[in-house]
Write a structure and sequence with these properties.
single chain; alpha+beta; Aspartate Aminotransferase, domain 1; 2 domains
Amino acid sequence: MINSRINLKVDEFLSNAKKWQEEMEKLRTIILDCGLTEELKWRKPCYTFQESNIVIIQDFKEYCALMFFKGVLLKDTKAILTKPGENSQTQRQIRFTNVRDIDEMEPILKDYIYEAIEVEKAGLDVNVKKSTELIIPDELQHKFAEIPALKTAFEALTPGRKRAYILYFSQAKQSKTRESRVEKYMQQILDGKGLND
């Protein structure tokens, strides 16, 4: 029997996955068992409840992850949620490197997913701290002046992606290093991708 909630774009994404395919398939099965709707958003399998994002499956070099959009509101009784990045305010992840761990955690994962659905049903929101205005490094400003299409592409990125690039470029102490970082990621910005895409 075909699951009516299965999205063919996600099938295609998973069949083309170069890494973590088995792990992501297992996570998908668990999530669909919880009654969520499957979509492909941000080029990742994303699961919604009444059109609100609940969880997304992410694939990285070192691990794959189940990320809860409002993870900070979950009780996390098993202390398994981690911040995806130092500047993450609302999202929380559970990271995996093998299917066995996912199998063992299936009941816990379902509990967390059901709790995330309840958070959404209750209409709970996270009070996000307004981020301080980020200063675009001079090296990136110079590239914007040289290549207007780069500035246009950068401005079209999501706020989180812009922030990640600015933080990464700005962390370099030397101008030469900042320049090389900008050079390295120019094509990725032009392609509309984030730092870790």
